[in-house]
Automatic annotation (TrEMBL):
Main subcellular location of this protein, as a coarse class: cytoplasm
GO molecular function: RNA-DNA hybrid ribonuclease activity
Cofactor note: Manganese or magnesium. Binds 1 divalent metal ion per monomer in the absence of substrate. May bind a second metal ion after substrate binding.
Protein name: Ribonuclease HII
Keyword Nuclease on entry: yes
Gene: rnhB
Keyword terms of this UniProt record: Cytoplasm, Endonuclease, Hydrolase, Manganese, Metal-binding, Nuclease
Family label: Belongs to the RNase HII family.
InterPro entries documented for this protein: RNase_HII, RNase_HII/HIII, RNase_HII/HIII_dom, RNaseH-like_sf, RNaseH_sf
Cofactor(s) of this protein: Mg(2+); Mn(2+)
Binding site for a divalent metal cation: D16, E17, D108
Function: Endonuclease that specifically degrades the RNA of RNA-DNA hybrids.
Residue ranges of every copy of the RNase H type-2 domain listed in the record: 10-199
Compartment(s) of residence: Cytoplasm
Amino acid sequence: MLLINHSSHILECGTDEAGRGCLAGPVTAAAVVLPRNFKNKTLNDSKQLSELKRTLLKPIIETEALCFSVSHVFQEDIDTINILNASILAMHNAIGSLSLVPEFIIVDGNRFKPYGNIPFETIIKGDSKYLSIAAASILAKTYRDAYMNSIHEEYPMYQWNKNKGYPTKAHRAAIRKYGITKYHRKTFRLLPEQFKFDL
């Protein structure tokens, strides 16, 4: 059973990101403030849930949250500032776009940078411990998946509708055959045996 709050603050914001280990597309973060009386037996870390359950939970979270926000940081910025900084930037952008100012921030993982003067805590595996982080993980994942499905239409040979940009065998085989696209992260090791591309 996931806990509702980590702190005594009413406006506690959970934040998480999706797509950090991908070869293509953005890293996407969400920030969610849930009411203190929020309950949901299905809600868990997005990685533990099926796509169907994530899809069903998305509108419940969006309707019942006190506020939520989602932010993409795209591959050009990832290549410029690196994936860790891009992940934190996406979380900061999501928090900054909330309609309420949180009193406390809980972050999935162990790396974060202060956001203004708001106190925060990083929590390893926080998405399987706290409802607001789990909710953020689901919104980040579903919004990012929807974006990857949309760019799949442009480059169907990479099968982003299935792999969502992660380094699957099929994705790497397509990179080997067709080269890279404007959506690929050029600073990532896209193929194990290849470090440079002729652009």
